[in-house]
Amino acid sequence: MTDNQETPDAEDTAPSGSATLPPLRPPCERLSCHKSSVCSRSYFVVVMVFFHVYIINVIALLFYVHYSSGQEDASQSRDTPSSNHQRPESGRPPSKPEFLRDVSLTRIEGIRVGHVQKVSLVPGKVHEMRTLSLKPLLFEIPNFLSEDECRVVMQLAQLKGLMESQLMVQDGQEELAKELNLSPEEIFNLLDINQDGQLQLHEILTHSRVRDGIWLTPENLREIYAGLKADKDDDGLLSLEEFRLLSNDAFQRFLMQQGVKRSQLVRNSRHTWLYQGKGAHQVLQDIKTRVTRLTRLPPALVDLSEPLQVVRYEEGGHYHAHHDSGPVYPETACTHTRLAANISTPFETSCRYITVLFYLNSVEGGGETAFPVADNRTYDEVSLIQNDVDLLDTRRNCKKSNLRVRPTKGTAVFWYNYLSDGRGWVGEQDEYALHGGCMVTQGTKWVANKWINIDPDYQRQARYQQLVSQQPEDEDDEGLTLNPDIQSSDIHQDL
User: Fold this and answer.
1) Where are the domains of the chain?
2) Residue 285 pLDDT > 60, yes or no?
3) Residue whose C-alpha is closest to residue 267's, from 313, 224, 306, 200
4) Angle between the 201-212 and 218-228 helix axes, to the nearest 10 degrees?
5) Where are the strands (E) in 200-338, listed by range?
6) pLDDT digits (tens, 9 = 90+) for 214-263
7) Which reaction equations make up its catalytic activity (predicted)?
8) Distance CA 39, CA 131 (A)
9) With 0-12 CB in 10 A as exposed, 13-18 as middle and 19+ as buried, what is 228?
10) Among 442, 424, 452, which residue's Cα sits nearest to residue 107?
């Protein structure tokens, strides 16, 4: 009998008197079989429990993902109303309307200094565009204007009438200081560029030139210190204690008493503005079209920019080194988009993304356009005035500039005043775009400027263009483009 055969009961197999019993299976074996059955059932139960828990977790995860996606879609639909399902408005625009970034500004590559590119600006003619510098990105295009076009622009400017580019002394600075409510300590810290606790000559010079429009030299400043008895210890530096003794307009009053010559102004020229929109002289419209092709920008941006500025420098005329546009900070507004942005700020700049400068005649002597720090390895404002050598002074130190462009009739030069933000829009100010007009030593100099105004804040620019596009078409000439005379004084700043 084998182990896996069952043993019948003794009562059925043995005779009634037999004392022998059949062999029984060891207790341990019976126990082992029983234990194995229990373990199998327990294992099955545990596996089933884990399986159900897993299924429940998967179902719960699917519900969570579905619920989260629903919430996200609902949130997006609330934040970005579509054209078919917009929330009813109560006649007021949304507080922060978002415009899609559907415009990318083309930026011409300079490749290297001296590189020549072929450009088609007018039908049947090819112009050559030469790279003059990479910092700033600066190009020269000979024969951009014909002799007849140069003559027409000068005649139109004379017919319109030219005005002084700068008044002798600018007013209103005292009111601005009061409006900002700045303490002497705050003004002192604002002027103290290197934050050494003392105002050096170049720091005061920079402030006076920007504020009063008067080009003081270090020698002039020492004379003013002596006249006002401002520098008590006669070390050429102003401490905070010495600065506190001066009123906001102390320099201005002293200069008014001494008298200011035209040669002491930041710029010495006359100018006017020529409208280039519908109904303007065909030559002016052609120039605008050519600028659009040259810069490769959307026509709407060029159309909504400043009119053409025409400037005449007599012998002795100059324009000290400056930037056509300033840096834009959160508290700064662009002049052309300020009204559309509906913001109020005492700080404004023209936001001139591109400058296109045309030479309307060839100058007999002087009158070059100087770029003092073009292609410098670094830019340091403090180093512009050192050891009484002022690189910003185009009357004295024009020859010390890194680059000078000689004025030749019909030639155009253009450069970018801002860098790219890396996403196809306007970035930070290019400080290397510092430039000025050298003193005319013989004859007369005629130039024209075409600026392309673009707000570095894409949303403000888009809002401005949307506002302008909503104006009736018959109001384009009068409503959208302000009177050039008004623009030159109120809207367009001559920086």
Assistant:
1) 115-166+266-470, 172-261
2) yes
3) 313
4) 90
5) 267-268, 270-274, 308-313, 318-322, 333-334
6) 777 777 777 777 878 888 888 888 888 888 777 666 766 666 666 667 77
7) L-prolyl-[hypoxia-inducible factor alpha subunit] + 2-oxoglutarate + O2 = trans-4-hydroxy-L-prolyl-[hypoxia-inducible factor alpha subunit] + succinate + CO2
8) 88
9) middle
10) 424
Distance CA 402, CA 490 (A): 34
Rounded Cα distance, 188 and 184, in Å: 6
* pLDDT, averaged across the chain: 79
Instruction: Say if CB 287 and CB 121 are below 8 A apart.
Output: no
- Helix intervals (H) in 80-120: none
pTM for the whole structure = 0.69
Distance CA 88, CA 80 (A): 13
- 172-261 has which CATH code? 1.10.238.10
Q: Cα(11)–Cα(18) distance, rounded to whole angstroms? A: 10
Q: How many CB atoms lie within 10 A of CB 392?
A: 23
Residues 93, 94, 96, 100, Cα dihedral to 10°: -80
E-assigned strand segments in 303-461: 308-313, 318-322, 333-334, 348-349, 352-359, 365-366, 369-371, 385-386, 389-390, 403-405, 412-416, 418-420, 426-429, 435-437, 440-442, 445-453
User: What 3-state class would DSSP assign to 227?
Assistant: helix
Looking at domain 115-166+266-470, which CATH architecture does it have? Sandwich (2.60)
Collapsing DSSP to helix, strand or coil, 307 comes out as: coil
Ramachandran assignment for 15, one of left (phi > 0), alpha (psi -120 to 50 degrees), beta (any other): beta
Reading the block at residue 35, the tokens are: 């234990």
The per-residue pLDDT for 51 is 73
